[in-house]
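User: Write out your own:

AI:
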Amino acid sequence: MAGIGISRRGFLGSTAAVGLGVLAHPSFSARAFGANDRIVLGIIGAGGMGRGHMENFKNLGAEWGAVCDVYEVNLEAGLEIAGPQSKGYADHRKLLERKDIDAVLIATPEHWHHNHLVDTVQAGKDAYCEKPMSWSIEQGADMVAQVRKTDRIVQVGMQRRSSPAIHECKQLIEQGMLGEINLVRAEWYWNVNLRTRYVLPNKLDWDRFVGPARKQPFDAVRYRNWRYFWDFSGGNMTDQGTHLVDVVQWFTNTTQPRAAYCSGEVYKLQPSETPDTFCAVFEYPRFTCTWTLCYSNSFQSGWGLVFQGQKGTLELCESGYRIYGEPWTGGGTSYSRWGAPPPQIEKLPGGLTSTLPHIQNFLECVKTRKQPNATVELGHQAVRTLHLANVAHHKKTRAALAEDGTTVTT
């Protein structure tokens, strides 16, 4: 059912994949921006993550003209941030009909990302699309194809691509500080519980939320915790893994593994479907990568990446990074698991995953028409690797990716 525009106090209304080398269309159909012009945005999906991004976009000078959400509570909260000049919608297609909207923030569950992104660029709007970019390998390849049929600017929300400290690490690797990298360890540790906040069923358009997914009866647990159910998400394999695997492939100048294995289970977060604890192993031509997640223990809380090379080791986390030289024998006369040598380089500025530089990069690219730091090609390459691990998990076997990047064998 098509939605209609609503006031701030009302809620009314209720492919074939291609390769990654396609060039952007040379034409430019969006309005030309002056140095002081404000970019007018609409948001599709005004949940907690989306509203956080809205505040950051406002702080960087953007203006909000429209908000779309299927849950009236989120819609009203988004409209409060957007301001009195904004309008609300239940149907994203009505938002996209607005001629005054320059760009769209897509912050919906990932089972909607394909439709929302394709509809957005076909409507002539630029897009900032939250990660993980796609719900499947096939969808991701089609998203790349559809975006590259247009002249639209699309930034995927992999904010490490715009982090100054992480760029420094990339430069140090290129300078040879680690030598040949043979092992990479990606890790994420939290101690969390499922969300149990109440949902007002009469204020939620459940059928529109489910959208392209399998039809199913209303379930408040699935709505609040959609990241943990296969119909709506690839789980934390793709959700958090996209951030880390993107850096792994960026730093090692690779675009995909040859194959993946994965073992994991739901040990704590029942009735989830996607594992809350897992270990995936990726075979790359010159190195091995592991990706480990545990959501029932917060020792070494948060994310971490360790690149182990023949000349040195890089440790990278939210606080910053350290580089240690090789060989190391424990810092003394005997080996010690718990000892650590003084790092050759240590930089701990904190806040490595701030989204502000990434949003700023997107806004600048909307005006200049230059490609952003996290293009759809990069977004697809990152999550494709994690989709492969999910295939391995489901099939309980080794899953291989063909050279064309679209065919999976097990």
Summary: Residues 40-159+356-374 form a domain with the Rossmann fold fold (CATH 3.40.50.720). The two ends are 40 Å apart (CA to CA).
